[in-house]
């Protein structure tokens, strides 16, 4: 079984870090399985047992959960950075990796002052590179989150009706997904109808759904911290000819999914999707990138975009979501989460592509 903490320690050795200071709670959860709602500082050495520093109020919980690190209790009157400093000194650390992508300026200035005997090196990338491919255990969690979101789409479609408000539909979907085991929503549930469906970042509002509206349903669920992200677009009543942009978007999405293979540059996948949209003249209305990685965060690596330098890797999970947005008219977006395997892309979200309801 792949152990990401051991892989990380190997990387630290290769990159000649004496130690690494994991301060982002999502990353300390990634390695230790303990999610703190205050702080959980993980000090990782290439060869010693990692130490997880948690506040007193989290100690019992962490002690029961964590199997691969030594859990250190920080009582309310102690200074955690001071205690970590002692440990760094005892182990003769000269250079310390830090999480440059997520640390506050205040925290950075604080450690620069307190740890002035150290050379601090940027290291977020090392963790991002580990998170880009998923373990079997992570894939199971992502699959569960996807299954719940699939059912959430069906609930949205059942509830959508003329004169109901977008927020009401969003509430029905979230209530249902919670009952199915979703811990929370990874992002606000989006039900965007009519002219509002043309806002690529549209959110649910008090607008009432009307006959003939295009409606974007963009939702996600969360299992053990792992997110899903799916979008379907429906129309109430028979679609008018212009609403058939749906067919171009669906074709672009399906072709892009088929294009995904291990070793391919991510930008090529977006190019393929854009070729299809260009055939019908809609390419210029596709104003965002094609997709993003999904894991503990709903947006992580790889980036599926024209500018991306990422190479698609086996066991990466990411979205493919072309969209076309015609101002004052409406928009269409179709999104699935896919797992990249040796046999190509496998969709983890499997809600039907229903258009007319
Ligand atoms: Mn997305």
In short:
The protein is an alpha+beta fold. It is 35% helix and 21% strand.
Percent range for helical residues? 25-40%
Strand order of the largest sheet: 4-3-2-1-5-6
Biggest sheet layout? 6 strands, mixed
Mean pLDDT: 96
Summing up helix and strand content along with how strands pair, one would put the structural category as: alpha+beta
**β-strand number:** 18
The low-confidence parts are none
Oligomeric description of these chains: single chain
Account of the 3D structure:
With 357 residues, this protein is an alpha+beta fold. Helix content is 35%, strand content 21%. It contains ten helices and 18 strands. The protein has helices at residues 4-14, 25-32, 56-65, 80-90, 105-114, 124-131, 136-159, 166-179, 245-259, 266-279, and strands at residues 19-22, 41-44, 51-55, 70-74, 95-98, 119-122, 190-193, 214-219, 222-223, 226-227, 230-235, 291-293, 300-304, 317-320, 323-326, 330-333, 336-341, 344-347. The strands form six sheets. Strands 4-3-2-1-5-6 form a six-stranded mixed β-sheet. Strands 7-8-11 form a three-stranded antiparallel β-sheet, with helices on one face. Strands 14-17-18 form a three-stranded antiparallel β-sheet. α3 (56-65) links the parallel β3 and β4. α7 (136-159) packs across α8 (166-179) and α9 packs antiparallel against α10 (266-279). The chain is elongated and about 70 Å long. The chain starts with a helix and ends in a 10-residue tail after the last strand. The model has no long low-confidence stretch (mean pLDDT 96). Manganese (II) ion binds next to loops.
